[in-house]
Amino acid sequence: MSILKNFSSPTPPALLAAAAVLAAGAWVLPAWLTFLLTLAFAKALVVLGVVIQMRAGLVSFGQALFYCVGGYGAGLGAQYLGLTDAFALLAVGTVAAVAVALVCGFLLTRYREIFYAMLTLALSMILYGVLVKSSALGSTDGFNVAPPSFLGWVPGGVEKKRAIYLLTVLIALGVALAFHRFLESGLGRVTEAVRENEIRVEYLGLSPRWLLFANYVAAAGVSALGGGLTALATGHIDPDMAFWTTSGEFVFIAILGGTGHVVAPFIGAIVFSVIRTFAIQEAPNLWQMTLGIILLALVLFLPKGLWSLVQRRRREIAATSGQPATEASQSPKGISSPISEKGVRA
Amino acid sequence: MSSFLAILIDGAIYASWLFLVAAGLTIIYGVMRVLNMAHGSFYAIGAYSAASLVGWYFSGEQQGSPYWSYALLVGCALVAGAIVGIAIEQGLLRFLHGRDEILMVIVTYALLLILEDATKLLWGVDPYFAWQPYRLLGQTAVGEGLRFANYDLALIAVSILIGLAAWFALNRTNKGRLLRAVIHDREIAVAMGVNVNAMFAATFAIGAVLGALAGALTAPAISVTPGIGVEVIVLAFAVVVVGGLGSIGGAAAGAVLVGLSRSFAVHVAPEVELFVIYGVMFLVLAIRPQGLFGQTLARRI
Known about the structure:
The complex is a heterodimer of chains A (346) and B (301). Chain A has a domain at 12-247. The model of chain A is unreliable at 1-9 and 325-346 (pLDDT under 50). With 346 residues, chain A is mainly alpha-helical. Chain A has a two-stranded antiparallel ribbon with strand order 1-2. Chain A has 15 helices and 2 strands. Chain A has helices spanning 2-5, 11-24, 31-55, 64-80, 86-108, 113-133, 158-184, 186-196, 198-203, 208-234, 244-257, 264-282, 287-301, 307-321, 326-330; strands at residues 143-144, 236-237. In chain A, helix 2 (11-24) runs antiparallel to helix 7, helix 3 (31-55) packs across helix 12 and helix 5 packs antiparallel against helix 10 (208-234). Chain B is built from 12 helices and 4 strands. Chain B has 301 residues and is mainly alpha-helical. Chain B has a two-stranded antiparallel sheet with strand order 1-4. A two-stranded antiparallel ribbon of chain B has the order 2-3. Chain B has a single domain (2-287), classed as ABC transporter involved in vitamin B12 uptake, BtuC. Chain B has helices spanning 2-32, 39-59, 68-91, 101-123, 132-136, 150-172, 174-184, 186-191, 196-218, 228-243, 248-268, 273-287, and strands spanning 128-129, 139-142, 146-149, 223-224. Chains A and B meet through helix 6, helix 11 and helix 13 of A and helix 4, helix 10 and helix 12 of B.
């Protein structure tokens, strides 16, 4: 149990250590595993976007919109702008997604609950509809993305995958650190208050709409990064990136990991990818059913996701060692799932 | 002129199909406040059971009239929908009454995933065809050079019939009035002695039957393949949300609006066909968040 004890240390050093270990893994782990981790981390970035909206009580069933914009941004940047640098390509996708979010955010932040879910879904399906019908972009087939260069360095052979893996770990680390700061900041905590009672937040003199708007734009940016990394790693993009089932997958991972901590989406995404790899290999026609059963079980028995297991463990350690665990005791109730605590409707 | 007529009739056909698909969804939401993602699976189950049964009916040495296949379509939708609907309501949703709406979306999403693979296990992944009932009714020429399948035109009549039946049942029968009382205020209805749980079970079964019926009636016109449920559900969402969640009249209005806009797009600018459906949805919600016929709810402090 000594590994779990490390979790009670402050998050940033732990994140740095984890990233260092993962980066070192690039030369140790088998290629299929680093590829799986690359895609898992890229997904986790999108899920992080879903999670910060969930903390505000909003479930986005259309986060695939930004995942897709990020992916197509990178792809189109390579195709039409002649860019080859990975950072530039990711930036194109992210800027495009943020621009889209700035426009859509104005409208979306007026809606809550089921309408928010439906509207985000509609937006991503609009993009899907446009992409499917645009033959210049390959319609349903999408198109291939050439392997990128990295600040002038053009890797070859095995180095290609390794470079993208390292880039993903690096970006994931940066994003995780930034979002950890955000979640711990006043702004990040107030979004949870918006979920609990929006009108009281208004009475406190804050603007829930503006908070949700900022939240939405941040979620869009980070999701686009995930989409861009996926495009670079797989070398291919297609309109299915924007289909609503892709968004459903992100919601699934968000619930699997939980919303309690910035690391939760990453754990969720890794577990999800591992389950999927083996499920598709063993029983391809039972894969969705497996997902559905796990999702039902999570909603019914572990509504705060896998991260709540870590939290529980932490509290036990804190209780036995007689000293308060830093983070767990600060906000024992604040860290909760948006979908579980609302309880019975009036 | 003839293209205008074509747009109109195509739109009416598509709208009637949309209404068939959306009616069950909106009834379930109206009564239970469950936005049922698994509705797509009910549609798929109806389509599969109809296609396999009709296929069997026409393949064997059965001596009956081919017109019996229409009874088969409706019959298997009733049976399949009722079984699946009651099983899900009694087995799972019963324990989750009154929970958060968003949570219910996620629960029914899980159900959709489970049922998707269940249909694959039951019927395999090969396509099913049941075109015989579709061909049987022949075609009608409208104006110069326009031909429509009579089956599609009959679909319009069927969906109008279902709409009227639903309206009648809700507004003119005793049970329907009780149901409206439950929709309006669940707690008071319970206090007045309405058996809300029985109402919920019945509503869910009816909604599931309507979903399965939509699938069964569509099956002769398409090839039934895995994934049809997933495609249909977002369309049904769009229709229901445009009309206003939980309102049958709204679903009809939404279906007509979406159906006509799509057929207009198909004839005038085919490249925006898919875009236009969700575009309409987005536009309506931007102007009227509760949908065309939805009720606004007061904010809770």
